[in-house]
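Q: Could you write out the predicted structure for this multi-component system? I'm mainly interested in how the pieces pack against one another.
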Amino acid sequence: MNKKEKWSLSPSLESTQHVSIQKQYSLYINGKWVKPNSGIYFPSINPADESHLSSVAHANEKDVDLAVKAARAAFPSWSKLAPSERAKYIYRIARVMQEKSRELAVVETLDGGKPIRESRDIDIPLACNHFFYYAGWADKLCYAFPNRKVEPLGVAAQIIPWNFPLLMAAWKIAPALATGNTVVLKPAESTSLTALKLAEIIDEIGLPKGVVNIITGFGDTGAALVNHPDVNKIAFTGSTQVGKIIQKAIVGTSKKATLELGGKSANIIFDDAPIDQAVEGIVNGIFFNQGHVCCAGSRLFVQENIADKVIRKLKLRLKSLYVGNPLDKNTDIGAINSKEQLEIIKSFISVGKKEGAEIYQPTCEIPKKGYYCPPTLFLNVAQSHTIVQEEIFGPVLTIQTFRTIDEVIQKANNTPYGLAAGVWTDKGSRIFNLTTKLKAGVVWANTYNKFDPTSPFGGYKESGFGREGGLHGLAAYTKLS
Amino acid sequence: MKRIEILKTYKIYIGGQFPRTESGRYYTVKNSEGKGLANICLCSRKDVRNAVVAARKAQGVWAEKSAFNRGQILYRIAEILEGRKVQFVEELILQGQSKKIAQSEVDLSIERLVYYAGWCDKYNQILSTVNPVSSSHFNFSNCEPMGVVGLIADQKSPFLGLISALAPVIAGGNTAVVLASVDYPLCAVTFTEVIHASDVPGGVVNVLTGSLTETASALASHMDVNAFVTSNLGKELNIPLQLSAVTNLKRFYEYSEDWNNSTAQGLHFINDFQEIKTTWHPIEQIGGATSSY
């Protein structure tokens, strides 16, 4: 082969033949599919090519009320059911999800734009495992909270974002059911489909009616759910801005809340780190799921003496990233979740340029249709830059340098957020020095963006409160006395 | 001839020092017969901000002390308090408490300090987990203090209530800005002298006096305060504070406890002011040797 000839990738498309998406989805309330009172269905768009996937019901206040009533009616018998029996239902959900995992992965990618590699290997397996993990807790709660009486809270209102649709549904529903609560779940408007597929699975396994209700809609649906007087618990994952609105809305009520909110997490590279591995970690930290990750490593800190080398290697690596059809197994960066989000990212990029930061984007072919954004680096940025301070929620990385450990700790902690951080160094004692001093709920050493059902996740400061996953995730859904 | 008593000036406590309020103002607390007991500092919002700065500065120092050492220091507070018990009983009586109840409240306060002293090097063992993740990582979740805690002392149980809410906060490595009971502040101020003599680093506990309408909202809305706690304050006063606390998503707790109760203490009070941090650390996987060798 001629050395000068450019290698190109042969498309390797995941099949969509085996997938069933209905033309229209109603609301799943009290074990039945019911038409919305609003009479409105809105389109669900594939962000990869702007094609119409399905129509989804827009629940209004009346629909929310019906769903909460169904959850309330189901609560007494569900919470009194023998915990080992409760567990069996949750195990069933996990098993059927595993059986249908490929279909769920394809739907997730079609609906949300994330690369099939990620939905197939990360989102869906983690979602299944989450149900499997929490199923086993149902009859062991007395070991989780020794010397305390453990009771469920009641009806849990759960509002989830569009970046990990099915995984977030699992994070919310699994611990709520294991502890004996009933659920009303509202997925994000741009990614309702896998939650509705989950409703089909819940129906299929015979979960008692009303225990899980899934209603679709926009922010007004979520607001009606939060403000419903008969809800006992709010679990929300989304922006800090909306988190604060929710927190304000429930003041003076007895509603409990857990909030998983925004982040602007630091990824810190020391000069003794294995550089090539660290460069992969930087890429995974910020470009995983197009940067639509609340814990994305969006602020890179590189020790000054290796900065040139790291930046050179990082730019080279960016050139080989494949931006394109999410269904293609070659794809590294898929489609931006929605047109609105693409506009937000673009406006941050233009603010970055306006404020004087130096931009780097590799030249890459981007599909003509659909919502795409090339991987983007910003160099020569300061703490005060908007793009360093605010969450962009896209494939945009800011790069700063540091000299000493104290300096980087101060810079890393200088943010109202506190969700996650990454540290890259060969020295174990230094890792623990940093992980102790970084104000963040999750710290990854020599890795980034790793998740596991046994591992609690959640933030400090304005990244929210409460933990999801692990033993600590049970506390969010229990009343202890 | 009767000796002329030396009367005590009740000052506030910020960063390990006993200043007067920067505002120079005072109010007079009276007993039930209307007799003036003392002129107390009427603190301002500026005092609140100064106290938060002191608490923030001390927080890292306090959190990085060994858990064992923190336990010893809390125990030391109890020791010193035991030695000055009479003074606290007298102050409670001055403020209208019966002798019997005053004595039992001070006793219980000392017991409570000893109870939480013992927790300092234990709670993290109980509240932490090692998480068996599926990847090749050592993964654990442990407690870290939330940071600076704003604390409105129980207005009706000005000493036992204060100790019961404060002890778990500082046992967990947090620092506190305390707003003392408005009508019964004597013990809270005198308690700062006990703190001062107990090897507690300056700034770990800061105590302000004065009107809650002036100071409470300033503290609840302060962007550098991480958590907030009130005791038996009532819904009406709590709601505006909770709304202010949303500005930086403070963790907010409104306790309604009878602090005389033996159940009004426990690990969960410490847990309320802890964040859980999860750390992922890689495990090297190179050779083929297994643990069965």
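A: Regarding packing and overall arrangement: The beta strands of chain B are 26-30, 36-41, 129-130, 137-145, 148-152, 175-179, 205-208, 227-231, 251-255, 274-282.
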